[in-house]
Amino acid sequence: MTYEEMFREFEFNEEPETVVTSVNGLALPEDYLAFMQEHDGGEGALGRNNYGCFYRLEELEEVNEDYEVSENWPGYAVIGSDMSGQLWAYNPDKKIYCQIDSENTDEDTYYTISKSFEEFLNKMDEEPE
């Protein structure tokens, strides 16, 4: 699915005023940053099967602090959410995107593991709810 199809009903934010390239000392990936520099996240339907939001770049530090990400999911940076308990995250050491249940810190329960932002979006669209 193309970005245009994936984000057909998604409401984007304006371009970011400041570009953040890391969260909690973790570098954010280039493909995600390219997307965010154009849109700075937003909220809405994603593809055929999902709804959620990508947090604004300037909000990432606060969001990650609020979820206590460095304690609960060390090595990960949360970049978005389905707004009902599933967090969307990136791990720069493993170079993977994934979904995390916000109620579970066990790494073997992470899913939709992907090597690129585009692959992550497409896999998320295929995953059953």
Summarize the structure.
With 129 residues, the protein is α+β, with helices and mostly antiparallel strands. Helix content is 27%, strand content 29%. The protein has one domain: SMI1/KNR4-like (3-Layer(aba) Sandwich).
Word description of this protein:
This protein has a single domain, classed as SMI1/KNR4-like (3-Layer(aba) Sandwich), CATH 3.40.1580. The protein contains 5 helices and 9 strands, in the order αβββαββααββββα. The protein has helices at residues 3-6, 30-39, 60-66, 69-72, 117-126, and strands at residues 10-12, 22-23, 26-27, 42-46, 50-54, 77-81, 86-91, 96-101, 111-114. It is globular, with a radius of gyration of 13 Å. The two termini are 18 Å apart.
Descriptive key words:
9 strands, SMI1/KNR4-like, 129 residues, single chain, alpha+beta
Topology:
Blueprint: H1 3-6, E1 10-12, E2 22-23, E3 26-27, H2 30-39, E4 42-46, E5 50-54, H3 60-66, H4 69-72, E6 77-81, E7 86-91, E8 96-101, E9 111-114, H5 117-126
